[in-house]
Amino acid sequence: QVQLVESGGGLVQAGGSLRLSCAASGRTFSSYHMGWFRQVPGKEREFVAAISWLSGRTYYADSVKVRFTISRDRAKNTVYLQMNSLKPEDTAVYYCAADRDLDGKYDYWGQGTQVTVSS
């Protein structure tokens, strides 16, 4: 079992920045993919970014490419999402997730953290 706890959400003006953190604990996840997703009420959950815990290779949704950066600190068992040039349409609950089998089906999820971008 893997536990994921997100933090760092909040209210920011358009054009501002936030950094989300996802602290992971539990069984070893050294070969997992870690991802960030977001969801707005009434809409489907949307992929934002992912990173290979082992290699550090990153993946991004086109809507956030260039503006967002995913990274991981293996010593701290933490994944980050640096969000710059935020837009009102980035407003959502952001979730951290872990893909154990590297099949794109995320097996473990955090509780989410709210990000609100005001115009």
Core attributes:
mainly beta, 7-stranded mixed beta sheet, 4-stranded antiparallel beta sheet, globular
Give a short summary of the structure.
With 119 residues, the protein is mainly β. Helix content is 0%, strand content 54%. The strands form two sheets. Strands 2, 4, 5, 6, 9, 10 and 11 form a seven-stranded mixed β-sheet that branches. Strands 1-3-8-7 form a four-stranded antiparallel β-sheet, with no helix packed on it.
Report on this model:
The chain is mainly beta and 119 residues long. The protein contains no helices and 11 strands. The chain has strands spanning 2-7, 10-13, 18-26, 33-39, 46-52, 58-60, 68-73, 78-83, 92-99, 108-109, 113-118. β5 and β6 (58-60) form a beta hairpin. It is globular and about 40 Å long. The N and C termini lie far apart (40 Å).
Give the helix proportion (percent range). Answer: under 10%
Q: What global shape is seen? A: globular
* Beta strand %: over 45%
Number of strands: 11
Low-confidence stretches: none
Radius of gyration, whole Å: 13 Å
Mean pLDDT: 94
* Class derived from helix and strand content: mainly beta
Along the chain, the helix and strand elements come as: EEEEEEEEEEE
